[in-house]
Amino acid sequence: MTYQELVEKVKAAYKEANVEKITEQIAVQVNVEGEASGIFYFKVADGALDIQPYDYRDHDVLVIASTDVISDVADGKLSIEDAYAKGSIKVEGNLGKAALLKQVELKKAVKKAAPKKTAAKAAEVKEAPKKAAAKTVAKKAETKVEEPVAKKAEVKETTAKKAAETKTAAKEAEKKVETKAAEVKETATKKAAVKTTAKKASK
Q1: Which spans in 14-112 are helix H?
Q2: Global confidence as pTM
Q3: Residue 5: partners with Cβ closer than 8 Å, 6 or more residues away
Q4: Which H or E element spans position 129?
Q5: How far apart are CA 140 and CA 134, in angstroms?
Q6: Closest Cα partner for 61 from 28, 31, 15, 30?
Q7: How confident is the model at residue 110 (pLDDT cuts 50, 70, 90)?
Q8: Is the pLDDT reported for residue 154 higher than 90?
Q9: So where are the chain's domains?
Q10: Helix pair angle (3-13, 67-75), 10° resolution
Q11: Which residues make Cβ contacts (< 8 Å) with residue 11, sequence separation at least 6?
């Protein structure tokens, strides 16, 4: 990474930083060591932050750090406080004003997980019609299976009922025949008796 690229990276990171909480003017010079060695400064004044690739002779605070540390701070991987606590940066000058830098609020990065959720939701919505269609097919198949079974049961019941009715009718007809035969036999017996009586009387 070149010095110019590092400065542009820091500018981009702090472009929309909120410095409204800082009411004092602060001028900070940053001495970069290592690959992108050089000097730049940033100044907070009247609620605005300005970063320029020059030295600031009347600076309030001097910060000395390596290219990697400045890059990590710009990426949000490392805070200035943590870097100072670890000894990764050196701070000289007015430490009271240097402490005010904690009030610089960077714009929060947008979470990358959001598109995945949106994609997952879209996939779920896309699958919904398929699931509904599958349920409809299953319902139709269930109805088709139930209908023939019910129809067969109905036919079976009707056949059994007709068979019972036929059997009953046959029994009634048989009974009528037997009754008729008994009546005929009785009538014949009576006639025979009358003839016998009449024959005896004629003698």
Answers
A1: 67-75, 80-86, 95-99
A2: 0.50
A3: 36
A4: helix 113-202
A5: 10
A6: 28
A7: very low
A8: no
A9: 3-103
A10: 30
A11: 51
Q: Which tokens belong to 27?
A: 């001028």
Dihedral angle over CA of 127, 129, 133, 134, nearest 10: 20
How many C-beta atoms lie closer than 10 Å to residue 93's C-beta? Answer: 15
CATH code matching the domain that covers 3-103, chosen among 2.30.30.30, 3.40.50.2020, 3.40.50.300, 3.30.1050.10: 3.30.1050.10
Structure tokens at 84: 């100072």
Longest C-alpha distance within the chain, in Å?
178
Contact 76, 109 (CB under 8 A): yes
Given a contact cutoff of 8 angstroms between Cβ atoms, the answer to whether 24 and 47 are in contact is: no
